[in-house]
């Protein structure tokens, strides 16, 4: 077999301290099939690109290196790497994360091959605290495999978008069927890269769950590196809330594309509304308040009296 069965997508940007551990873990996988690593280096400003070139020189038959001249951003970089890939299946691992189990890929691919209707197979992850070097197992993990071949479709995707899907799906601990994405990309690229797309994993996972069932394996496959500063865990309040609200709005767009009623996201919205509004109130963020009001109307959320008073204040005095 000349073509790889699996393409592993690795995106990296300014990760000179992490990328070697990531690649070593992937290259140490024990499998009975051919795989490739699509390494998307997004115009880093440190030594990341040099490290990637060194690994590609050592493993030219396995690593396909794409060094971007200009920074594309996470979403566009991910999609371009997927489109470059040749595998039947896609696995990925963020440049600062790393796999824990040398049998990770083999275990997940075996399930995909055994059950052709599966859209993805995923496993548990551990949080790896970068500052201390300590591992912390995800306390939402299940200790038994989960496989329900009837559980897929728009309402299954809605559970994921509403943040009520358990065990949690992290794509870096998963392997999925590439054809389910490329078919949609050819007709509707805006689903992945349109205006308002701030994350790549949300549309990919929602689409997969709408097309086929998922299988959970009760193994720890991934170390998810917890950093002091990242896009989704920023200490900069403005940056954090901007990403959080943009992420929610992206979920709304995905729901519309998949034919899911906005009211299906009421659980997620209700859980975050007070938090977002409090930030908007403290910083007189009128535009954020207007976006929250539109969201509340769409999902059928009824703000409390206290929340309505804050919204009224921001309508009059917000920036």
How would the blueprint of this fold be written?
Layout: E1 6-12, H1 19-27, E2 35-41, H2 48-58, E3 63-67, H3 74-84, E4 89-92, E5 98-99, H4 104-114, E6 120-129, E7 134-137, E8 146-147, H5 154-161, E9 174-177, H6 179-187, H7 190-193, H8 201-211, E10 214-226, H9 237-257, H10 266-282, H11 286-299, H12 305-317
What does this molecule look like?
This protein is α/β, with parallel strands linked by helices. It is built from twelve helices and ten strands. It has helices spanning 19-27, 48-58, 74-84, 104-114, 154-161, 179-187, 190-193, 201-211, 237-257, 266-282, 286-299, 305-317; strands spanning 6-12, 35-41, 63-67, 89-92, 98-99, 120-129, 134-137, 146-147, 174-177, 214-226. Strands 1, 2, 3, 4, 5, 6, 7, 8, 9 and 10 form a ten-stranded mixed sheet that branches. Helix 2 links the parallel strand 2 (35-41) and strand 3 (63-67).
């Amino acid at each position: 077999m000349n073509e790889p069965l699996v393409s592993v997508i690795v995106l990296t940007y300014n990760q000179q301290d992490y990328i070697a551990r990531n690649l070593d873990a992937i290259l140490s996988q024990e499998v009975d099939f051919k795989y490739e690593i699509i390494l998307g280096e997004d115009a880093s400003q440190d030594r990341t690109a040099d490290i990637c070139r060194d690994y590609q020189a050592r493993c030219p038959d396995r690593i396909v290196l794409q060094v971007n001249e200009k920074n594309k951003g996470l979403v566009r970089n991910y999609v371009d790497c997927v489109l470059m890939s040749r595998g039947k299946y896609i696995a990925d691992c963020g440049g600062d994360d790393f796999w824990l189990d040398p049998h990770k890929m083999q275990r997940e691919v075996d399930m995909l091959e055994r059950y052709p209707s599966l859209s993805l197979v995923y496993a548990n992850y551990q949080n790896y605290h970068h500052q201390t070097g300590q591992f912390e197992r995800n306390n939402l993990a299940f200790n038994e495999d989960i496989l329900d071949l009837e559980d897929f479709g728009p309402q299954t995707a809605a559970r994921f978008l509403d943040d009520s899907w358990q065990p949690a799906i992290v794509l870096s601990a998963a392997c999925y069927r590439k054809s389910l994405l490329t078919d949609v990309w050819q007709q509707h690229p805006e689903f992945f890269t349109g205006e308002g797309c701030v994350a790549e994993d949300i549309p990919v996972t929602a689409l997969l769950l709408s097309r086929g069932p998922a299988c959970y394996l009760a193994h720890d496959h991934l170390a998810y590196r917890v950093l002091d500063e990242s896009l989704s865990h920023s200490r900069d309040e403005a940056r954090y809330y901007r990403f959080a609200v943009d992420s929610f709005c992206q979920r709304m767009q995905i729901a519309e594309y998949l034919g899911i009623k906005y009211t299906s996201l009421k659980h997620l919205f209700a859980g975050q509304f007070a938090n977002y509004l409090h930030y908007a109130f403290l910083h007189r963020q009128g535009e954020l308040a207007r976006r929250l009001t539109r969201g509340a109307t769409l999902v059928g959320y009824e703000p409390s009296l206290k929340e309505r008073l804050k919204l009224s204040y921001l309508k009059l005095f917000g920036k």
